[in-house]
Design brief:
The chain has 183 residues and is an alpha+beta fold. It has a domain of 125 residues: Aminopeptidase (3-Layer(aba) Sandwich). Helix content is 30%, strand content 30%. It has five helices and eight strands; from the N terminus they run E-E-H-H-H-E-E-E-H-E-H-E-E. The chain has an eight-stranded mixed beta sheet, sandwiched between helices. The longest helix has 17 residues. The radius of gyration is 16 Å and the shape is globular. It binds coenzyme A. Coenzyme A (COA) binds next to helix 2, strand 5, helix 4 and helix 5.
């Protein structure tokens, strides 16, 4: 699933003075790899834990994969950084279903949780997605047990529209709450 055209990153980082959303940089990569091994992240996100980046070629390849998500129109992966220090605190990602619909996904690195960082990131990415990328419909999917993520959806004004019941890779029942942002 993707857009029919590439997604263009923001010309300037998006900021509210506390967090900044910007493209992925080589300095972020070790924190991104470490966070992919966090138990909560593995529990709620389907992404595989990332291998340690052993050399510069592995780092360049990791950045190329992120660039490819933009140019293929598949996704818009952004880093959530501290607006003062520029240290990476998490990730927010738009995943494009087509030219009008995108899903918002996020993770905040463990040491930064519980301080409203994910809601700040969602509130920054939503108007940019609408104005700069022409996204009309914004969806947010969270496992029914992921109370922290559901709170983020609620705090950002998303409303529950559907519960999808299916099976995960191990055949266990999975209940996904689909939220939609009213226009
Ligand atoms: C879900 C997640 C992104 C929330 O990010 P955040 O920046 O901590 O969000 P908030 O600070 O607004 O906290 C949201 C809720 O988390 C819970 N929370 C509070 N402190 C917390 C802490 N220290 N650690 C974990 N969760 C906490 C609370 O229920 C809070 O809701 P409240 O504000 O009504 O009290 C983050 O917990 C995370 O990265 N989890 C693992 C990955 C994940 O689940 N991603 C979403 C997949 S759909």
């Amino acid at each position: 699933m993707s857009r029919s055209t590439p997604a263009r990153p923001p010309a300037e980082p998006l900021t509210d003075g506390t967090v900044t959303l910007r493209r992925r940089d080589v300095a972020d990569l070790d924190a991104i790899v470490a966070a992919s091994h966090d138990e909560e992240t593995k529990r709620w996100l389907e992404d595989e834990p990332l291998p340690v980046l052993v050399d510069d070629e592995a780092r360049r390849a990791a950045l190329r994969r992120a660039d490819d998500a933009w140019t293929s129109g598949r996704a818009a992966p952004l880093v959530i950084a501290d607006a003062e220090t520029d240290e990476a605190a998490g990730l927010v990602n738009l995943q494009f279903r087509d030219d009008r619909t995108a899903t918002v996904a996020y993770s905040v690195f463990p040491a930064h949780r519980g301080r409203g960082i994910a809601p700040r990131a969602v509130r920054l990415v939503v108007p940019w997605a609408r104005m700069s990328l022409g996204v009309e419909e914004l969806l947010l999917e969270a496992d029914a047990g992921n109370l922290a993520s559901i709170r983020v959806a609620e705090k950002c004004g998303f409303v529950l529209v559907e519960e999808v019941v299916d099976e995960d890779q191990d055949g266990r029942e999975r209940r996904t709450l689909v939220h939609r942002l009213p226009e």
